[in-house]
Amino acid sequence: MASNRRITLRAHPSGNPLPSDFSLIEEAVPQPGPGEMRVRNLYFSMEPAIRGWLDGKDNYFQAIPLGGVIRGPSLGIVEVSNLEGFKPGDHVWGLTHWEDYSILSAETILLERLDVSWNVPLSHYVGALGPSGLTAYVGLHDVGRIKAGDTVVISAAAGAVGSVAGQIARLRGCRVVGLAGSAEKAAILTERLGFHAAINYRAVGDLGAAIADACPDGVDVYFDNVGGRTLDALLPRMRDFGRIICCGMISDYNNQASPTPVHNLWQVVAKQLTMRGFLLFSHMDTLPQARHDLHQWAADGKLVALENVTHGIANAPDSFCRLMAGETIGKTVLAVD
């Protein structure tokens, strides 16, 4: 009889999470009740946002308690369904848990049935054609209001969201500059993804000066995945009426008790900037068009899906820890064995 392997929180991380902060347990395979379905998970999406749920403090989601199963977005296939609109064999996406089998209902956050008929790897629906790509699309269009001719700077540009955001901005006729943490990542941005310029922030003494050199006329849109010192360096380089898209603050996810001060916020007033955060599930009306455009760009060969895939549910903690240590490129995915 199959069992349900689950990854639980063993200890609250201190700084960068470690594999030893997690445990693997086995339980009986759950059975769906009325209005529910059982899904066998195929892929876990490794998300920096998960780090914020591990410290025992609620944010926009409740904290994961010690001994609790790690919450995260997953792609799976329906095995048994008592939920109207879903049948065995359907591929579905939703905010579930790191486990072999999940019970989903109409209340499951981000639940949707996927159209996997496009000729692309299934794992891409976890990244460039899934929440990462959708987040990039929504941020640029609904929040950043990009237009052709804009200069767009993207931090964590070789990551899951940043790598797609840069390509979308280029496809919309923008000049795109990416910030990344190694020469290898910077080369990928310009040589594979079509960024117009890339800055290895670890190799420059003054990030603000490097941004000014790459964007001599200023920055119209900044897609911020990092926060902290990077945001501080961008604020004085923004053009009047520029837009800052606050997608993530990954530089402080491992240090949320004492986040990095931002000293240049006066620039928001002086330059009449718009600075706005967003969460994907607040922009559901945009998602159909976003999905269509992302799939079409991928089918036409205009969108490159960067991903790194780790196999085996027991390796989920290690995969997540490497993501949070900045050791991965593109979308970090766990393929359930």
UniProtKB/TrEMBL annotation:
Keyword match Oxidoreductase: yes
Domain (Enoyl reductase (ER)): residue spans on this chain: 17-334
Gene Ontology molecular function terms on file: oxidoreductase activity, acting on the CH-CH group of donors, NAD or NADP as acceptor
Matches recorded under InterPro entries: ADH-like_C (IPR013149), ADH_N_2 (IPR041694), ER (IPR020843), GroES-like_sf (IPR011032), MDR_fam (IPR045010), NAD(P)-bd_dom_sf (IPR036291)
Keywords recorded for this protein, A-Z: Oxidoreductase
Cell membrane recorded as keyword: no
Protein species of origin: Niveispirillum lacus
Biological classification of the source: Bacteria, Pseudomonadati, Pseudomonadota, Alphaproteobacteria, Rhodospirillales
One Pfam family matching this protein: ADH_zinc_N
Protein name in UniProt: NADP-dependent oxidoreductase
